Amino acid sequence: MTPMTEVEVATRGLLISGKWYEEGTAQEIRSPFDGSVVSRTFVGTRKHAEQAIASAVTAFGTTRRLPAFERQRVLRAVAAGIAARREEFARSICLEAGKPIKVARVEVDRAVFTFQIAAEEATRLGGEYLPLDWQESTAGRWSIVKRFRLGRLRGLRRLIFR
Taking a C-beta distance cutoff of 8 angstroms, is the pair 142, 128 a contact? Predict the structure, then answer.
């Protein structure tokens, strides 16, 4: 089968902690539609995975200390950035996954929506009051539940590299 259209084949590296890595074994990404090469990337190594995990732990430590309005600003910026590149992302999904462009656009729109909702929820990380009227001795009492962003990244390295 011949390729449907001519596509410029981009080579994309690994983005880890704001730095691009283009090293190691290159791998072609082929369209499931016609088997043509639509992009190239590099296969990550154990070292790359460890760098990515360390970067995620560092980012988690930073973001958990941000006030809610700052977390909201960051999440809104991510949503806006994805929306601004909607067609580019949709085209990549279309080429790499073989999906129709309309479906690919819906996927991108869903990602934008997810970050917008997360931005709204960032300011709602508060507490709630729960009635403690489960038994006679606690009738008329209330519990205050305070939520804290904690996360669970400490055991991730052990989980991946058993």
Answer: no
CA atoms within 13 A on the CB side of 72: 10
Residue with tokens 């283009």: 22
Within 10 angstroms of residue 93's Cβ, the number of other Cβ atoms is 19
Chain-centre distance for alpha carbon 128? 28
The predicted-structure confidence for 37-58, as pLDDT tens digits, reads as follows: 999 999 999 999 999 999 999 9
Between 149 and 8, residue with greater pLDDT: 8
Length of the chain: 162
Q: Is 29 exposed, middle or buried (0-12, 13-18, 19+ CB in 10 A)?
A: middle
Helices (H) and strands (E) in the chain, counts: 5, 7
